[in-house]
Write a structure and sequence with these properties.
Bound molecules: zinc ion
Number of helices: 7
Largest sheet: 9 strands, mixed
Structural class: alpha+beta
CATH topology of the largest domain: OB fold (Dihydrolipoamide Acetyltransferase, E2P)
Length: 324
């Protein structure tokens, strides 16, 4: 949750709460922002956390979560369990299948194949009247072209990711939805990456060497760049705010930069600077490139940036979602 209200219904966004925290101001009792709910929530300020396998603590962004024992009402927009059920009920059974009551599986391979232009399914079209599970006489399920199917997969993915971005962690989604990529089970934290974990996304793609499952990255739009007239390349870039990581070497910084490339500059500029977005699909990584630049605050110092690039060339416009 990015927003909460006080007892009078005045809303506070996460930045205002962080500013109040930093200024040692009193933070009011907070409640869920959805008027149908108004259950007790709490603000957790930005902090650092030691994580396994990391040299230095990572920054955990501020968030608003439920207080212990508090739960959103059924119709609340922040009620994750309910919203997952609604999304999943509308989804294509070839993409989200039911394992057991309350447990579903999301098949990233069919999304991957759709995005890479491979056939979506090795199964031939199901002849009318022979659909298993539909019973004799009721088997009228039509074969849907992969275009419509892929549209449905993209919509389900976008809806789930939007919901994930409202949550403080993977837990709520992971409890109901297992991710599968062919025979492999994929952990939610290997699928969904906030900016503080761009480095882990880059490592994952490098390790997979071109065979990675689709991933999702959240970002804040930092800039747009269009090629000058006459340039050989045609793509416009939408760049997200990078992650910077200190190193043990003085004046050496690692940066992790996420960009979207697309020929439609007008479309990319419809995501203005400062917009929070989620991009998903078959992202690519580039090997590290080193750039040196004068320190903006101290021109006598030269800083070397080890640039790690991550990029997405969306095939479909549904692959970028604005987060409200
Ligand atoms: Zn609520």
């Amino acid at each position: 949750m990015r927003i909460a209200v006080d007892v009078h219904g005045t809303s506070y966004d996460i930045d205002a709460l962080q500013a109040a925290h930093d200024a040692n101001s009193t933070i009011p009792d907070l409640f869920c922002a959805d008027p149908v709910c108004r259950k007790a929530v709490r603000f957790v300020p930005r902090h650092q956390q030691n994580r396994k396998g990391r040299i230095e603590p990572v920054d955990v962004p501020a968030y608003i979560g439920l207080t212990s024992g508090s739960e959103h009402v059924n119709d609340c927009r922040y009620n994750t369990a309910k919203r997952i059920a609604v999304i999943v009920d509308k989804s294509d059974r070839d993409f989200v299948s039911e394992l057991e009551a309350g447990k579903r599986e999301l098949r990233l391979l069919v999304l991957h194949n759709g995005l890479s232009g491979k056939p979506l399914s090795s199964n031939p079209p199901i002849p009318t009247g022979a659909t298993p599970g539909f019973g004799p006489g009721k088997g009228t399920r039509q074969y849907v072209s992969s275009g419509q199917k892929l549209d449905s997969y993209l919509r389900t993915t976008a809806d789930l990711l939007e919901l994930r971005s409202l949550c403080d962690s993977d837990a709520a989604l992971a409890a109901q939805l297992t991710l599968r990529f062919g025979p492999k089970r994929i952990a939610w934290n290997d699928f969904f990456f906030n900016r503080d974990r761009y480095d882990e996304a880059w490592e994952l793609l490098k390790k997979a060497g071109g065979n990675a499952h689709p991933i999702a990255l959240t970002g804040e739009v930092k800039s747009h760049y269009s090629p000058p007239a006459g340039a050989k390349y045609k793509s416009t870039f939408l760049n997200c705010r990078p992650l910077y990581r200190k190193t043990d070497t003085p004046n050496r910084v690692e940066s992790f930069e996420v960009s979207v490339m697309h020929a439609d500059a007008a479309w990319l500029s419809s995501f203005p600077v400062g917009t929070s977005i989620i991009l998903f699909g078959l992202s690519e990584y580039k090997e590290i490139v080193e750039n040196s630049a004068k320190d903006a605050n101290d021109p006598s110092r030269t800083v070397t940036y080890a640039v790690h690039k991550l990029s997405l060339r969306p095939k479909f416009k549904q692959q970028i979602v604005t987060v409200l």
